[in-house]
Amino acid sequence: MNKYVCTTCGTQYPKSHEEPERCPICEEERQYVNPDGQSFTTLDEMTESGVYQNTIRQEEPGLYSITTTPKFGIGQTAYLITTGGYNVLWDCVTYLDEETIQTIEELGGIDAIAVSHPHYYSAQLEWAERFDADVYLHVDDQTWVMEPGERIRFWDGEELTLNEGVSLHRLGGHFKGGAVLHWGQGGILLTGDIIQVVADSDWVSFMYSYPNLIPLPAAKVKEMAEKVKPLSFHKLYNAFHRVIAKDANQAVQRSAERYRNALEGKLFST
């Protein structure tokens, strides 16, 4: 039996003799089905192909990015926070090989995995089992877990402290349980694409569906911005290696105001 992986979104499925008939993550309007149809692979096939590798790069003291090349699935970047002897993997990528494991072990391993939303669940249990770590997901998104497992810990409410200075905050928006990670000592907010850094890196935006360009209601964006306003952070990293390098909280607040003004017809006339 194999654990099949959707090639479009990177989600791994439980062991089975045959490929899944469908990928519910891709069929939902926040993602998409490849025009050529759904297709699946396995981690074994990926590693044996010799095509893929993970690039692990130090972004700043205590923060490392993990990106698979060439792009696989959605192409997101995961981040490893190493702080006070406690390591947290934020978001996840599908690809995992022995070189990646060795490099991360040299950095102290992984104590906990936290994921912003279902598009980045990918091979989260594979990573959890290899590093003996638990996975923290918001309970509001539990129906989107395609591979259940005992290592998954569903958290409820608006905030969860993982370790001193490292906390998760539910913002909703893109997904009802959509969360961000606040690393207080680093003054950093990691957002996946619950808050998305745009081409002009002094600004962010918010979406219900990115590939299908479905916006969020103005009231929800206001709520999301208000939830992060009390947090102390000056940098923001999204899931695609885009960074707001300074005054990031102010950037979120002014971006949310611009977004609301656009939806309410106050920003421009056309």
TrEMBL record:
Q: Which GO terms describe its molecular function?
A: hydrolase activity
Extent of the signal sequence: none
Q: Which SMART domains match?
A: Lactamase_B
Which SUPFAM superfamilies would you find in this protein's record?
Metallo-hydrolase/oxidoreductase (SSF56281)
- List, for all copies, the residue spans of the domain called Metallo-beta-lactamase: 75-234
Q: Which PANTHER family does the UniProt entry name for this protein?
A: METALLO-BETA-LACTAMASE FAMILY PROTEIN (AFU_ORTHOLOGUE AFUA_5G12770)
Protein name, entry field: MBL fold metallo-hydrolase
